Amino acid sequence: MTGTREMRILTIGAHAADQELSAGMIIAKYTAAGHKAFILSLTPGEKGHPTLSAEEYAEQKRREAAECARKLGAESIVLNYKDAELPYNDEISLEVCDIIRDIKPDVIITHPEHSIHRDHRHAHKIAMDAHFFAALKWIERAKPAHWTRRVYFSENWEDMEDYEPDIYVEIPEPIFEQYCDALSSFALWNGGTGWPYADYYKSLARLRGCLGGGLNWKYAATLMVPKGGLRQYAAGDRLPLEL
């Protein structure tokens, strides 16, 4: 393990596959260094299959998420909220707050503020409120308060409005191959739901490699740093690891 202690990363996505797709390479690189990662999905994302019912696809997505996480060296947590109906309120934000306090992550990665998908926009707000609630000792819950110093936003094809790639993370080829194998756990990766996810995210990784490292990097993933007060904790900083 690099560094002096085990560190923890928590991704928070609206649907199973959201953060696996957009932060999966970073997760794999993180866990390969001996650290721990947790992938929290607020819904299974069960309404996107052309032939399966929502109930059938929810069960499939949970299995796929667990297998993908296993291949990334992470743990999958999928909540029971409904796809396309993800609420935004204190109840769900406090539920996620409890998960943050339990896991005690050093890094949280979630959706950026803007998205064409309502669930993604709500997931961003839920994650940011949960991060806030988790840090306040005056909010009494089952576990004590926990402050996650670094919060980042991942690059998702539905969330590109105002997305700025502030941090480029080099992805070695074995990690890229691990990522592709892990994401193949999802039927959607190879077009099973009607959109070419594999083509998009493989091409994006190569593009970001060119932009981030020129001739020296083959692949890369990017993260956006929050605006405002939280930026001081992450600006000019790579992930709190030596990878």
From TrEMBL:
<dbReference type="GO" id="GO:0016811">
    <property type="term" value="F:hydrolase activity, acting on carbon-nitrogen (but not peptide) bonds, in linear amides"/>
</dbReference>
<dbReference type="InterPro" id="IPR003737">
    <property type="entry name" value="GlcNAc_PI_deacetylase-related"/>
</dbReference>
<dbReference type="Pfam" id="PF02585">
    <property type="entry name" value="PIG-L"/>
</dbReference>
<dbReference type="InterPro" id="IPR024078">
    <property type="entry name" value="LmbE-like_dom_sf"/>
</dbReference>
<protein>
    <recommendedName>
        <fullName>PIG-L family deacetylase</fullName>
    </recommendedName>
</protein>
